[in-house]
Amino acid sequence: MSNDGQPCQCVSARSSAITMGLDLHVNYMRMATKLARYALDHDETPVACIFVHTPTDQVLAYGMNDTNRSLSGVAHAEFMGIAQIQEKFGAQNTAIFKDVTLYVTVEPCIMCASALKQLGIQKVVFGCGNERFGGNGSILSIHRDSCTVPQNKHELIPGVLRKEAIMLLRYFYVRENERSPKPRAKANRKLDVSVFPPMNWGLYLTRSEFEEIFGASKIEYFDKSLDLSTHVDWSLIDCNQDIFFQNLKVECELFSLQVAKKPKPQTISS
Ligand SMILES: [Zn+2]
User: Alpha-carbon distance 39 to 256, whole Å?
Assistant: First the structure.
């Protein structure tokens, strides 16, 4: 604080940098959320992700849950995106992940969190927690684990568009129940669109980490387990996202043409 009672320039600069950073994260999470809606409309669990190349600020890959179509329990959204990046840069080139931020609607499971850590991802931003299998705080904190590749520690930003991520999962479970030959009584209840569980920030961040990411002005959210947003953006989760998906694919192909350079095959000189 300066002598005249006004916030000093460095504090206001820090505060505006935080706001700009968060706006960017929300924008990319909006894309991940639209993709999760697309997954829901194509009979998949609505979990999706976007991988962003931080230096160029471009989307380089995306992923959706593919477990229903592939009948593979490990076909998680993160793995689809990782495969796309490896296709672009070569499977041996893990250095690229140091320049990549993942935006995923649901906290990565333990398996995916471990893969992301081993690849050395720069940052993970997610919407809602994964209460049963979460690897970034809900069950285990793989990103802080010092047993495997301790040199790889990625930054974590939880709770971005959390309510939208929860609503999409609720849509999925209600729909599944409607299709079930014997609807389960518990799941037969009305879709809840207004009540959300408290956000337990402490599972994912320390209080000072929260303050560093979201700013001192929002510390009340941490202390009272509040969501970042009071409302749900229904336009993200109640619209058909087929056109968005087509545009997203084009965006990733453009990245391949403009930025990604596949390693040239080794030639043996005589
Ligand atoms: Zn997973």
Answer: 23
Low-confidence ranges of the chain (pLDDT < 50): 270
Q: What's the pLDDT at 179? A: 66
The structure's pTM equals 0.88
Q: Give residue 140 CA to ligand 1 midpoint distance, Å.
A: 13
| Residues forming the active site | 78
**What is the whole-number distance in angstroms between the Cα of residue 71 and the centre of ligand 1?**
15
Question: What pLDDT is recorded for position 24?
Answer: 94
Tell me, in angstroms, the distance from the centre of ligand 1 to residue 114's CA: 9
Encode pLDDT of 70-82 as tens digits. Answer: 888 888 999 999 9
Which tokens go with 53? 């190349």
Ordered by where they begin, the domains of the chain are 18-176+234-260 (3.40.140.10)
Ligand 1 center to residue 90 CA distance, Å? 22
Distance 239 CA to ligand 1 centre (A): 26
DSSP collapsed to 3 states, the chain: CCCCCCCCHHHHHHHHHHHHHHHHHHHHHHHHHHHHHHHHHCCCCCCEEEEEECCCCEEEEEEECCHHHHCCCCCCHHHHHHHHHHHHHCCCCCHHHHHEEEEEEECCEHHHHHHHHHHCCCEEEEEECCCCCECECCCCEHHHCCCCCCCCCCEEECCCCHHHHHHHHHHHHHHHHHHCCCCCCHHHCCCCCCCCCCCCHHHCCCHHHHHHHHCHHHHHHHHCCCCCCCCCCHHHHCCCCHHHHHHHHHHHHHHHHHCCCCCCCCCCCC
Residue range 110-155, pLDDT digits in tens: 999 999 999 999 999 999 999 999 999 999 999 888 888 888 988 9
